[in-house]
Write a structure and sequence with these properties.
The complex is a heterodimer of chains A (about 120) and B (about 150). Helix content of chain A is about 40%, strand content about 30%. Chain A is built from 4 helices and 5 strands. Chain B is globular, with a radius of gyration of 15 Å. In chain B, about 40% of the residues lie in helices and about 25% in strands. The chains are: A alpha/beta (about 120), B alpha+beta (about 150).
């Protein structure tokens, strides 16, 4: 039973990862692999879209933190969009809003990259 | 009207694929105990974090080793006790994480413990590595109603 999925869509320089389901210690390696692939392809402008993400634990949050430094050094970023209130609360508890740009819609984050 | 004490128990192999099942077990009991939906989810997240620690650090992903999750509910609280017999590590010695520092150092650990402490009303530990390690998480009903 697969309870987590990552779908990727590339728009010129920007890559969107759409997360679906439950992101915990069991599924975090799948997400980690998706980001790793983007880094290997030198695609550093990343949007993580979470409208269908039902759940996140610290294992999932750790993935964001594990790569952000390297990505920002390459003039890239991970911008977060379409969070449900439930998922946002977990990000908020750990102070992520001060460290990551969060947008309501993917288009806003994309616009920010293309400024 | 005083609700009777209810007890539940789940003994389950220490693998991450069981986390979903553990969360569902906790969510159902928290709902039955009268917690609102948001608090049910907070409790399930705290238990997920505590079990993830056991799986990774105490039992080292060994499916032959069982985690013992016992839950007790009464009229005003829910107590979750998670027991393992692994090598153990003293969570009390971990400092709260500085998230910015974590990012600089590309570290992953420690966030779970911080979440547990933030989400639950009381967190107690007992360490006896190799014999029995226990973490006990308590959430009070009234606090969740008033907050």
């Amino acid at each position: 039973m697969e309870n987590f999925e990552v779908a990727r869509e590339d728009h010129s320089e920007v890559s969107i990862l759409r997360l679906k389901g439950f992101l915990d210690a069991h599924t975090a390696p799948n997400f980690e692999q998706a980001i790793q692939e983007l880094i290997e392809e030198k695609r550093f402008k990343i949007i993580v879209s979470m409208s269908d993400l039902n759940y996140i634990s610290s294992a999932g949050l750790g993935v964001f933190m594990g790569f952000i430094e390297e990505i920002r050094e390459k003039d890239g970023d991970i911008k977060l969009t379409n969070m449900t209130d439930k998922v946002y609360k977990v990000f908020d508890l750990l102070g992520f809003p001060a460290l990551y740009q969060i947008f309501k819609e993917e288009a806003e984050a994309e616009k920010e990259y293309n400024r | 009207m005083k609700a009777k004490t209810q007890k539940y128990r789940l003994k389950i192999p220490s693998v991450t694929e069981n986390l979903q099942m553990i969360r569902e077990f906790v969510l159902k009991i928290a709902a039955k105990a009268g917690f609102n939906e948001e608090t049910q989810e907070q409790i399930a997240l705290a238990v997920d974090e505590a079990c993830t620690n056991v799986i990774k650090h105490a039992h080292h992903h060994d499916a032959r080793r069982l985690m013992d999750i016992q839950i007790k509910t009464d009229a005003n609280k829910m107590i979750i006790t998670i027991t393992d017999k692994g090598s153990g590590f003293d969570i009390t010695k971990l400092k709260d994480p500085d998230v910015e520092k974590y990012i600089r150092e590309s570290r992953h650990g420690g966030l779970g413990i911080y979440l547990i402490k933030t989400l639950m009303d009381e967190v107690d530990y007992e360490f006896n590595p190799g014999v029995k390690n226990q973490v006990q998480l308590t959430k009070y009903l009234q606090k969740s109603v008033t907050s």
